[in-house]
């Protein structure tokens, strides 16, 4: 399947945006001083673990989407490079003797 140029760039941008947003969210979660992420003894709460899991899952999905977009952008550039190179000839067929 071949993606269009706008879709490929959108997916790549979404992947980069996801990295920025979710890494920032995880940093803020780790430094939370409101008492939601850590209890009075400094131990992580259920809120912390659930939101950390959401951040990791979103980071991984954003990475996968970004990779798809990157491959789409790279595939769009490949045909132009192939037109300048030698054309491919089919391999000769083997016959049984």
Q: What does it look like?
A:
The protein has 97 residues and is an all-alpha fold. Helix content is 67%, strand content 0%. It has helices at 5-30, 46-84. The protein is elongated, with a radius of gyration of 23 Å.
Topology:
Elements: H1 5-30, H2 46-84
Helix pairs in contact: 1-2
Distance between the termini: 40 Å
Strand/helix succession: HH
Largest sheet: none
Secondary structure tally: strands: 0
Quaternary state, please?
Answer: single chain
Task: Average the pLDDT over all residues and give the rounded result.
Answer: 86
Which outline best applies? elongated
**Content of β-strand:** under 5%
User: Given the structure, what is the number of helices?
Assistant: 2
Query: What portion of residues is helical?
Result: 55-70%
Unreliable stretches (pLDDT < 50, length at least 5) are none
Q: Compute the gyration radius: what is it?
A: 23 Å
Structural class assignment: mainly alpha
């Amino acid at each position: 399947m071949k993606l269009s140029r706008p879709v490929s760039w959108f997916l790549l941008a979404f992947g980069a945006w996801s990295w920025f947003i979710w890494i920032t969210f995880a940093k803020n979660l780790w430094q939370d001083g409101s008492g939601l992420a850590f209890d009075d003894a400094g131990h992580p709460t259920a809120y912390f673990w659930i939101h950390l899991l959401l951040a990791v899952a979103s980071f991984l999905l954003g990475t996968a989407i970004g990779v798809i977009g990157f491959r789409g952008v790279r595939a769009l550039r490949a045909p132009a490079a192939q037109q300048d190179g030698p054309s491919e000839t089919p391999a000769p067929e083997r016959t049984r003797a």
